Amino acid sequence: MPPVTILIPVKEPHHSKTRLSGLLSCSQRSELTVNMLIRVIQAAVCSAVDDIVLAGSQFNSLKQLIEGREFGPVRWVDVLGQDLNGDVEMASDIIKNSGRAYIYIPGDVPFITSNDIEDVIKSSEDGEIFVFVPSESDGGTNAMLIPPSSDFIPLLGVDSFRRHCEYAEGNTLDYKIVRPFGFTLDLDTEKDLVRCEEIEPGFTDRLGAVPKDRLE
Predict the structure, then answer these.
(1) DSSP conformation letters of the chain
(2) For 125-135, what is each residue's pLDDT tens digit?
(3) Each residue of 152-203: pLDDT tens digit?
């Protein structure tokens, strides 16, 4: 396994998933956000990667929870917590200074597995080639692997997958597109929640809690 760090931005849960406000209360959206993040962390910990960074504000309510639990190779990095691209860039600078590639993973891909993560890393040819994973629904980027020598600036947000590919092409950077199943669905809308229920019946009732078979 090449020297790769997993980078997971962490938003304050009470400010997350506002597009589900017509269906879920603030506390339910917060619970959903936390449970999905734990799913992502557990998939990361079960992978062969030995360095996992959670990037969030020092005032984020999840910081103490994460630091208080034994998640193996997981560490918290303080960022401003105001802008996703700024937070990813700030945390990735710290990672790249240590000579490691990084793989950005959002905290809201509830069906991710360790095999999905390792498939992305293998596609990068030992961390030397950019890898982008598209969202199946909204044109976003649900994962990306960035080599350590790159000055790449993240362009996360609306239509980010197309913009990331165009950035790579415009700068003559080699890249691959892969679609591991667990990365393709990120949960943002009511339609996404319906899709989650189709994949995992009972998902909504549990609000994305970690299935028992993934806790073993």
Answers:
(1) --SEEEEEE---GGGS-GGGTTTS-HHHHHHHHHHHHHHHHHHHHHSS---EEEEE-TT-THHHHHHHS--SSEEEEE---S-HHHHHHHHHHHHHTTT-EEEE--TT-TT--HHHHHHHHHHTTTTTSEEEEE-SSSS-EEEEEE-TT-------STTHHHHHHHHHHHTT--EEE---HHHH----SHHHHHHHHHHSTTHHHHTTPPPGGG--
(2) 988 999 999 99
(3) 999 999 899 999 999 999 999 999 999 999 999 999 999 999 999 999 999 9
Q: What is the pTM of this model?
A: 0.93
Q: Which residues pair with 6 in a beta bridge?
A: 52, 103
**Token pair listed for 98:** 């240590």
Quick check: 18 and 62 in contact, CB under 8 A?
no
- How far CA 16 is from CA of 21, 106, 130, 180, in Å, comes to 10, 12, 28, 25
Amino acid code (one letter) for 31: E
Q: In what order do the strands lie in the sheet with 101-104?
A: 74-78, 52-56, 4-9, 101-104, 141-146, 130-134, 175-177
Give CA 140 to chain center in angstroms. 12
Cα separation, 156 vs 164, in Å, equals 8
CA torsion sign for 38, 210, 15, 132 is positive
